[in-house]
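Saturday, quiet lab. Running sequence design on the structure tokens for the scaffold JK sent over.
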């Protein structure tokens, strides 16, 4: 087979792999077959980027813990509210950052944003309102928002998370009344 035809086939297989038209194992096998075991430079470059991608996921995951640290660090209401606003803003920025790079799953950043908002608001409600019915109602509203947003954006994990929160509300109500 001539070299030009091989390059065309390899590019087509890479397209299939990047757009998930075939499972990765099949694409890797076909790429190894047509390149005779030589890994393409772009694939090596993509492997070197994976470390940075994991760093983005790690930093985004840390945002979930920051509201707890703020509530443990200070008792001042004003500082807590400003800290929560900053954390929610950072979570929004992470959504923009994740959507910029095709290798990152923006759905993960969306999920972290919703979790940070729910978690932060529950900390504020628990500390300053101290009414369980308002807290449960707020959790119910959040879970319904998650389900509706997941349905509109076609993100099934968000719907599953909303249903999970609904189940948690049911369990919490069960422990309070029975």
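Result came back. Writing it out in full:
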């Amino acid at each position: 087979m001539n070299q030009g035809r091989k390059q065309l086939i390899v590019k087509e297989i890479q397209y299939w792999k990047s757009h998930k038209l075939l499972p990765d194992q099949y694409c890797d096998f076909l790429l190894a077959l047509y390149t005779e075991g030589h890994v393409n430079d772009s694939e090596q470059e993509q492997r070197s980027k994976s470390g940075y991608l994991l760093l983005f996921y790690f930093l985004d995951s840390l945002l979930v813990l920051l509201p707890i640290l703020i509530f443990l660090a200070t008792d001042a209401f004003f500082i807590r509210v400003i800290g929560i606003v900053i954390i929610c803003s950072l979570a929004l920025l992470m959504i923009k950052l994740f959507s910029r790079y095709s290798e990152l799953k923006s759905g993960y950043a969306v999920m972290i944003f919703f979790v940070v908002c729910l978690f932060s608001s529950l900390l504020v409600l628990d500390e300053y309102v101290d009414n369980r019915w308002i807290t449960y109602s707020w959790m119910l509203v959040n879970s319904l928002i998650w389900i509706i947003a997941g349905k509109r954006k076609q993100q099934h994990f968000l719907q599953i998370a909303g249903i999970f929160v609904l189940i948690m509300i049911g369990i919490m109500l069960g422990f309070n009344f029975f």
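Notes for JK: Residues 77-100 form the longest helix (24 residues). Residues 133 and 173 are 10 Å apart (CA to CA). Ask whether to fix the surface positions before the next round.
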